[in-house]
Amino acid sequence: MDLYEIRKQFPVLKQEVYGKQVVYLDSAASSQKNIDVLLAERHVTLDFYGNIHRGAHYMADKTTEVFEGVRDKIRDFIQAGSREEIIFTKGTTESINLVAFSFGEAFIGPGDEIIVSEMEHHSNIVPWQMMAQRRGARVVPWPFTDSGELDPATLRSLITPRTKMVAFCHVSNVLGTVNPVREITALTHDRGVKVLIDGAQAIQHLPFSVQEIDADFYAFSSHKMYGPNGVGILYGKRELLEAMPPYQGGGEMISEVRFSGTTFNELPFKFEAGTPHITGVAGLGAAVDFLKKVGFDQIRAHEQMLIEKTTACLRQIPGIIFYGQAPVKSGVISFNIEGIHPYDAGTLLDKMGIAVRTGHHCADPVMARFGIPGTIRVSFGIYNTPEEIDRFAEALNKVISILRP
Ligand code: PLP
Q: 138, 151, 170, 357: which could join 377 in a potential S-S bond, CB 3.0 to 4.6 Å?
């Protein structure tokens, strides 16, 4: 597909901000949504909407068919072994909280350890800390290298007979590092330990199979892969999900409710209490179709070009400090400018129509590791163009000339 044709499917990118056409470089926070995603949500809403799984009439059945069809699409997209291993949640955050709670209840006791990489988003740190406190366990940090990489040898030295889980990201939302997931899962499994992979920044950029990388759990969000917000996915191996207790109680997750005791539904419904974001799931189906139609070869090639061009532009500016210099990167570039606070730079860029993210990016331990308050983060989607990178570089030079006398 032609890049400019793809871009046309994202009408919001025609927006003007402060009188200038917006350059949206914040897709790691949330990507824009294409027209087909909105049409899929509208189709369900306007043409036949009913609540799912509660059968009894045509509209409910038709809505259920769409909803369950998207479960099949996701299974195929990440190459899971079965549809029962795909759980719909609110987002990556809820997916990880679900595992931390339920896996914790089933498998973690006093004195046990959970290893968490230091490059994680807060949503892959705090749920483990909360669970550890509840279960009398301990969270052990796995430091990253100066170049922003996770060294499997360091992990090997951290695993003890008390380790029950290793939690890490496929791609870092600050450093852009693509972690060697297969190598990490292999060494972790060799020691009898399970892994949770946070795929929030990988799912929209890289093709992979959860079976091939041998993830025990894999979490991601629809709104970072061109789909609607309020929908997430948890993939979990069936035997683990079956051994874990439900996370939330309510409608749909039960088999039979009596005041003398309740029995629970089968997978995946056991983990899907209450009415989910039905229309959002329909939109997610369209987002998956879009990603497949564009194809990961084109996505990878285009995004690599954007990363290389942006890095080359930044290298020409004196005083740029990069964070994350791994050989394989995806989606984001983080940097600071000597003598300039990232927030000041971000505010001025915004006034020039350039949307970047500044701050700690919900990854305080990464900031602490570098001893900085935050970074400027540029992140890409398939709709970004080389011309936008030129406009960003031009604006950044102007910002520097204003802020650095
Ligand atoms: N993990 C990573 C790596 C992220 O980048 C984010 C969001 O930025 C999250 C988790 C949390 O995702 P959500 O807010 O969709 O739950």
A: 357
Nearest CA to ligand 1 atom 7: 29
Q: How far is the CA of 294 from the centre of ligand 1 (A)?
A: 24
Fold of 3-27+295-403: Aspartate Aminotransferase, domain 1 (3.90.1150)
Among all chains, which residue has been given the structure tokens 């000339």? 401
pLDDT at 199 (0 to 100): 98
User: Is 362 tagged catalytic?
Assistant: yes
pLDDT of residue 404: 85
Q: Check pocket membership of 120 for ligand 1, CB cut-off 6 A.
A: no
Q: Which of 26, 27, 92 to mutate to test the pocket of ligand 1 (most atoms within 8 A of CB)?
A: 92
What residue spans define the domains of the chain? Answer: 3-27+295-403, 38-292
Measured between alpha carbons, how far is 76 from 252 in angstroms, rounded to an integer? 24
Mean pLDDT by 10 residues, the chain (405 residues): 91 95 98 98 98 90 97 98 98 98 98 98 98 98 98 98 98 98 98 98 98 98 98 98 97 93 96 97 98 97 96 96 96 96 97 97 97 97 97 98 88
pLDDT value at residue 15 = 93
- Whose tokens are 């852009």? That residue is 176
Per-residue CA distances from 119 to 139, 173, 174, 275, 392 (Å): 14, 8, 8, 34, 27
Give first-to-last CA distance, the chain, whole Å.
45
Catalytic residue among 29, 294, 320, 362: 362
Pick from 117, 121, 330 the residue to mutate for probing ligand 1's pocket: most ligand atoms within 8 Å of its CB.
Answer: 121
In this structure, the strands spanning 23-24 and 20-21 are unpaired
Give the CA distances from residue 221 to residues 7, 70, 105, 189, in Å, rounded to whole numbers and listed in that order. 22, 14, 24, 26
Which atom from ligand 1 is nearest to the alpha carbon of 172?
A: 3
Token pair, residue 169, equals 């990201």
Tokens 């995603």 correspond to 37
pLDDT at 1: 74
Helices H / strands E in the chain, number of each: 13, 17
Fold of 38-292: Aspartate Aminotransferase; domain 2 (3.40.640)
